[in-house]
Amino acid sequence: MSDLELISNFDENLTSYDPELTEILDRFIKTQVLKECLLDDESCMLVILSCLVANQSVNLYERTLDVAINLGLSPVSIKEALYQAIPYIGLAKTYDFLEITNKVFIEKGIELPLPCQATTNSDNRLETGYNIQINNFTKEFIDANIDSTPTGQKHIWDFISSFAFGDFYSRNGLTEGVRELVSFTYILCLRGCENQLRIHTKGNIAVGNTKEDLISVITLLVPYIGFPRVHNALAIVNEICD
Questions:
Q1: Number of other residues whose CB lies within 10 A of the CB of residue 207
Q2: How many other C-beta atoms lie within 10 A of the C-beta of residue 62?
Q3: For the chain, what is the radius of gyration of the CA atoms?
Q4: What is the largest CA-CA distance in the chain?
Q5: For residues 185 and 48, what is the distance between their CA atoms, to the nearest angstrom?
Q6: Residue 75: which H helix or E strand, with range?
Q7: The CATH homologous superfamily of the domain defined by 3-117+171-241
Q8: Are 29 and 7 in contact (CB under 8 A)?
Q9: Where are the domains of the chain?
Q10: How many other C-beta atoms can be found within 10 angstroms of the C-beta atom of residue 242?
Q11: Model pTM score
Q12: Model confidence pLDDT, tens digit, residues 104-126
């Protein structure tokens, strides 16, 4: 990755008012973080944007989004990464970022709404989502979880299949691999979701991402999420992939 992630590229005020901090962050990012990250520039920017959404970093998200568009990131890929937040962090935490994204798109002359990326309808979303889950996590795992769910709670699995996977994972606009990296990012940025991170570590491997890709995501996010969550994520990746 190039120097796209340098804090001085995103926030002129911080550079002016806190030059020592900016220098520390830029030095760390440029001479250490970026040298260890193996992801392409677009994937890096989508991971960073997703991290900022998950952490409710409104101001830095808007600045980073502006830079991402100027660098040529596809509006469709940006919107799809944002939509992917809803199954993992919920609409309440995503809504403001939808408004920000639409505002910035309009300011940039990007015509809304964007081209439709849906591939399912009311008749096939449940089956399609279930099949995606099978592909990513195996039929044995999904069926075992459904079968062991107490009576009165099985509808949650229908929600997962139809909504999370049938409505969102099935969409065009992101490759299967990038969509799973984005999902991994959202879960990684949450607290107390280690079991889900284990599942999506396996899901990433199933769709062709490597252990090195996941470590690159974690590495890239060190300046944004701090070391405690980084250590938790590394422990899970090492547990699953070794």
A1: 16
A2: 16
A3: 18
A4: 59
A5: 9
A6: helix 75-83
A7: AhpD-like (1.20.1290.10)
A8: yes
A9: 3-117+171-241
A10: 6
A11: 0.95
A12: 999 999 999 999 999 999 999 99
